[in-house]
C-alpha cells in the first residue's frame, strides 16, 4: 500500500497549478515563454487589476515562427485556448500602451494561470458526457497523466539519443580534423626543411 501511495502521490501533485503574478508598468512589455509538446491542449485564464488612465493592454500568444495563436487588443480579463501543432517555444506577451495625455498612473497587476495537457482537460464535462462515476473520472485523469509522463520520458529518451549521435558525429569530425591538421603541419615542416637546405646551399653556407 505504501508503495502505491508513493507512486500516486507525485501524480496527484502534478495536476496542481499555481497562478503567475507580476506587475506591468505603463508603456512596457512583459513576456513569458514555455516549451510545449506537439498536439497538446493549452488553456489559460488572465486578469489585470484596474488602473485609471493606464490605456489598453494587448495580450498576444505566438510561437517561435511568429504565428499568432491568440490575440486580444483590450485585455482585462478572459480565457484562451489553443492546440499546439508542433513541439515549440511559445511566448505569452502583455503589451501596455499608455493613453496620450495621461498623467502618472500606477502599475497593473497581472494574474495568469496556464494549463496544458492533462491539466487543461475538463474532466467534469467528460464525466457528464460519458456518465462516469467520480472514481472512474479520477482513474481516467490518472491514466491520462501517466500517459503524459510516459510520452515525456519517451521524448527525453529521443532527445538523449539525438544528442549522443550529435556528440559521436562531432567527435569523429574533430578526430579527422586533428589528423588533417597534423598532416598539414608535418608537410609544412618538411617543406621548410628542404627550402632552408636549398637556401643555405645557394649561399654556400653548407655543402
TrEMBL record:
Q: Which SMART domains match?
A: EMP24_GP25L
Key words of the record: Endoplasmic reticulum, Membrane, Signal, Transmembrane, Transmembrane helix
Residues covered by the GOLD domain: 29-116
The reply on keyword Methyltransferase is no
Q: Where is the signal peptide?
A: 1-19
Query: Where would you find the membrane-spanning parts of this chain?
Result: 174-196
Bilayer topology reads: Single-pass type I membrane protein
Compartment list: Endoplasmic reticulum membrane; Membrane
By sequence similarity, the record places it as follows: Belongs to the EMP24/GP25L family.
UniProt protein name = GOLD domain-containing protein
Tell me which species this is from: Hymenochirus boettgeri
Amino acid at each position: 500500500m505504501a508503495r502505491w501511495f508513493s507512486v500516486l502521490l507525485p501524480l496527484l501533485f502534478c495536476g496542481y497549478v499555481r497562478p503567475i503574478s507580476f506587475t506591468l508598468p505603463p508603456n512596457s512589455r512583459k513576456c513569458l515563454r514555455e516549451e510545449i509538446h506537439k498536439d497538446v491542449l493549452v488553456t489559460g485564464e488572465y486578469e489585470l487589476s484596474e488602473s485609471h488612465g493606464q490605456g489598453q493592454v494587448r495580450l498576444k500568444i505566438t510561437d517561435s515562427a511568429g504565428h499568432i495563436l491568440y490575440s486580444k487588443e483590450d485585455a482585462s480579463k478572459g480565457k484562451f485556448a489553443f492546440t499546439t501543432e508542433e513541439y515549440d517555444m511559445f511566448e505569452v506577451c502583455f503589451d501596455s500602451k499608455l493613453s496620450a495625455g495621461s498623467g502618472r498612473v500606477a502599475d497593473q497587476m497581472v494574474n495568469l494561470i496556464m494549463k496544458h495537457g492533462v491539466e487543461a482537460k475538463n474532466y467534469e464535462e467528460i464525466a457528464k458526457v460519458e456518465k462516469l462515476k467520480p472514481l472512474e473520472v479520477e482513474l481516467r485523469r490518472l491514466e491520462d497523466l501517466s500517459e503524459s509522463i510516459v510520452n515525456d520520458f519517451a521524448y527525453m529518451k529521443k532527445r538523449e539519443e539525438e544528442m549522443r549521435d550529435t556528440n559521436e558525429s562531432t567527435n569523429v569530425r574533430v578526430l579527422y580534423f586533428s589528423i588533417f591538421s597534423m598532416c598539414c603541419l608535418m608537410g609544412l615542416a618538411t617543406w621548410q626543411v628542404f627550402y632552408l637546405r636549398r637556401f643555405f646551399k645557394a649561399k654556400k653556407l653548407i655543402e
